Amino acid sequence: MKKADRVRWWTYLLLGVATLACVFPLYWMFVVATTDTATATKLPPEILPGGNFFHLAGLVFTTVPFVRSIINSLVVAGSIGIGHALLCSLAGFAFAKLRFPGRNALFLVVVLTMTVPTQLAVIPQYMIISSLGWVDTLQALIVPGLASAFGIFWMRQHLATTISDEILQAARIDGAGTWQIFWRIAFPLVRPAAFVLGLLGFVTAWNDFLWPFIVLKSPEMYTAQIAIKALQNSYSIDLGLAMSGSFLATLPLIVLFVFVGRRMVAGIMDGAFKG
């Protein structure tokens, strides 16, 4: 018992340190968001929040169209999250349970695309978006992100290990078509994994900066991350103003995690045990 207690004590200690390491940057961002640049850069640094947060938050909303930017981010990230959950599940189902010529070779190509850096696709992707007339529109952010190679790989592995071929064969004998098998049998069984994938897609799209920075031109089309960049001028950075914008842009993710964090962890653990 003593040895077990000692292991449990060290485990909680490590978890506590890891938790502090994850939470402290958020706390420090809030501290800076309540002070000014001079206070944020002095040594030793201030570790207690100041009283300037509401003033700086007001400046954020008057300097850039921040509310519109948050709405744009919600539209883009929500669409991409739903697209990841549905489209990657469809593709994963096809690769896992359907038989068609070139299936393995095509899946290998999908997996190999994960080795290509995202930056290499920026120029050809921009040329396609420009030819479609989508520059400075939200669909330029939504459509390229509706599915991903990682998402297809994730769902393919989950579907392959969760659903037996006998269940699908029985459904076909009963007269179910491919779409009915996917929507009524396969997707409900892997819904936790699809939910986790959708959340990962949502968070990735919310935090994306490079592609929106290239494609968006007008302030009313800005996402939250581009609006934060617009708070900085070319010669100096008001750290308090910038961190206020960053904290306000992080709040929706915190609220999201409070409501769905337990379900997200359960979905990840479910996939881990079944994998």
Automatic annotation (TrEMBL):
Domain ABC transmembrane type-1: 70-260
Matches recorded under PROSITE patterns: ABC_TM1, PROKAR_LIPOPROTEIN
Keyword Transferase: no
Chief place of localization: membrane
Annotated SUPFAM superfamilies: MetI-like (SSF161098)
One Pfam family recorded for the sequence: BPD_transp_1
Transmembrane feature ranges: 12-30, 70-93, 105-126, 138-155, 193-214, 239-260
Superkingdom, natural source: Bacteria
Database matches in InterPro entries: MetI-like (IPR000515), MetI-like_sf (IPR035906)
Location in the cell: Cell membrane
One GO cellular component, as annotated: plasma membrane
Protein's recorded name: Sugar ABC transporter permease
Organism of this sequence: [Actinomadura] parvosata subsp. kistnae
